[in-house]
Fold this sequence. Notes:
Layout: E1 7-11, H1 16-28, E2 33-37, H2 46-51, E3 58-66, H3 71-83, E4 91-97, H4 108-115, H5 119-143
Parallel strand pairs: 1-2, 1-3, 3-4
Helix pairs in contact: 1-5
Amino acid sequence: MQTGTDIVLFTTGVTLPIVIETHKQLSANGLSVGLVHLPTVQPLDQELLRSHCHSDALWVSIEEHSVIGGLGGRLAAWLAEHHLYQQSVPRLLTLGSKAEFLHGHQTQQQARLHQGLTPELLAARIQMSLHAQMREHNLELKEQPQKSMVSNHMITS
């Protein structure tokens, strides 16, 4: 486990080597990036998750599974259950397999490339999301200097 203030990458299962490479690429770009490998999706390590809720870091779940019902869904549910009314709740980006059948014979590498699950593609999507979040935050601060606490608790995917 590594801590980060800009981004926290969460993974489970066979995607760990991909996420380690993604972590290296994001860190090389000057970002503070945390990395958390969860051995199980259920139960979740409550204390571990709480330890990463200290900042406005972008949480990113990366899995070789559908984004529906996997690790990202569990993290979204956990954030909603435990941190709905706190002032600073991490935003969540869920990255995983698209809800589609892969036709034909493909290697695991080809399937990952098709699904966007390579370190290069993941790093690019994460950086785009982080920059969009920063732009949105700056616009909100200029347009609504006294926003309500509830407006800060959005989970994106």
